Amino acid sequence: QVLSLPIVVIVHGNQDNNAKATVLWDNAFSEIDRVPFVVAERVPWEKMYDTLNLKFMAEVQTSKGLLKEHYFFLAQKIFNDHSASLEDFKSRNVSWAQFNKEILPGRGFTFWQWFDGVLDLTKRCLKSYWSDRLITGFISKQYVCKLLSTEPDGTFLLRFSDSEIGGVTIAYVIRGKDGSSQVEHIQPFSAKDLSIRSLGDRIRDLGQLRNLYPDIPKDQAFGSHYNSGWRELGRA
What we know:
Blueprint: H1 16-29, E1 42-44, H2 45-60, H3 68-79, H4 86-90, E2 93-95, H5 96-100, H6 111-131, H7 141-148, E3 155-160, E4 168-175, E5 181-185, H8 191-196, H9 199-205, E6 211-212, E7 216-217, H10 218-222, H11 228-235
Parallel strand pairs: 3-6
Antiparallel strand pairs: 1-2, 3-4, 4-5, 6-7
Main location: cytoplasm
Domain SH2: 114-213
Keywords: Activator, Cytoplasm, DNA-binding, Nucleus, Phosphoprotein, SH2 domain, Transcription, Transcription regulation
């Protein structure tokens, strides 16, 4: 006899997300010679991050994985700790409850539900943008404000929404007549929104967006993602 790969039986589509979490955890963290169905309740965060990275690249089908700054943001999110250093997180363990049971503070969903939403959105609508490194993605709203506040008017970047599952939003800086800066956030776009009009075309349409952070003109950064009719018009 041979043990199969983990299988989860569901009776409704709303159980799909939890089933995927169970299979992911079992595949990644079970021991080869374990007692059947016995899996660690807590695992090193570094191992969890490596698993998320591999999952992201496999699902999106991209060679561009998560970066060191993404590691820090995701650690802060899953542990709900914004005071620890990068080194502090390296020695921590993450539990199954933190991964897929506990609701994130101020939200109505778990860490995995949020991350899986990002996976689905990127796979369906943002693969080429991610692979071209045009999406910062995993970054907090607070840190975005810190980055953009000293930048020229119209500088922007793209991040995955914290408040909505499967949303990508655009943050950009505007300056008043007195020179003071303010960072604005556009309502997140969902997969449904981006199936109607692509992210590239939406960025092209927004006149207040000028340079992708730190200083790449938006037409240079996103021009290859504009619809073909616009590109032909630009060459003419």
